[in-house]
C-alpha cells in the first residue's frame, strides 16, 4: 500500500506542475496585464497592490516599556 500512495502523490504533483506550467505559458504568451492571465487564476499586473513604506516601530516599543 505504501507504493500505491506514493504513485498517487507523484501523479498529483505532476498534474499540479503541469497546471502551473500552463498558467506560466499563458502569462508569457499574452502578457502579465492581459485578461487571459486573470482567466487562469492569476492577478493582473495593474490590479496588484503597490508596496507601501512601513512607519518606524521604535515609538511603539518605547510605549510598551
Uncertain regions: pLDDT < 50 for 5+ in a row? Answer: none
Coarse shape: flat
With helices defined by DSSP (H or I, 4 residues minimum), what is the helix count? 3
Radius of gyration: 21 Å
Quaternary assembly: single chain
Q: How many strands in all?
A: 0
Largest sheet: none
Mean pLDDT: 82
* Structural class by helix and strand composition: mainly alpha
How many separate domains?
A: 1
Note the gap between the termini.
Answer: 58 Å
Secondary-structure element order, N to C:
HHH
Strand residue percentage? under 5%
Helix amount: 55-70%
Describe the structure.
The protein is an all-alpha fold and 65 residues long. It has one domain (2-50). 63% of the residues lie in helices and 0% in strands. It contains 3 helices and no strands. The chain has helices at 2-30, 35-39, 58-64. The model has no long low-confidence stretch (mean pLDDT 82).
Annotation keywords:
single chain, 65 residues, mainly alpha, 3 helices, 63% helix, flat
Q: What are the SSEs and their pairings?
A:
Blueprint lengths: L1 H29 L4 H5 L18 H7 L1
Please give a quick description of this structure.
This protein is an all-alpha fold. Helix content is 63%, strand content 0%. The protein is flat and about 55 Å long.
Amino acid at each position: 500500500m505504501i507504493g500505491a500512495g506514493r504513485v498517487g502523490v507523484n501523479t498529483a504533483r505532476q498534474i499540479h506542475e503541469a497546471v502551473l506550467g500552463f498558467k506560466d505559458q499563458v502569462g508569457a504568451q499574452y502578457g502579465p496585464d492581459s485578461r487571459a492571465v486573470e482567466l487562469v487564476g492569476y492577478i493582473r499586473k495593474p490590479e496588484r497592490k503597490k508596496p507601501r513604506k512601513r512607519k518606524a516601530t521604535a515609538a511603539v516599543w518605547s510605549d510598551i516599556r
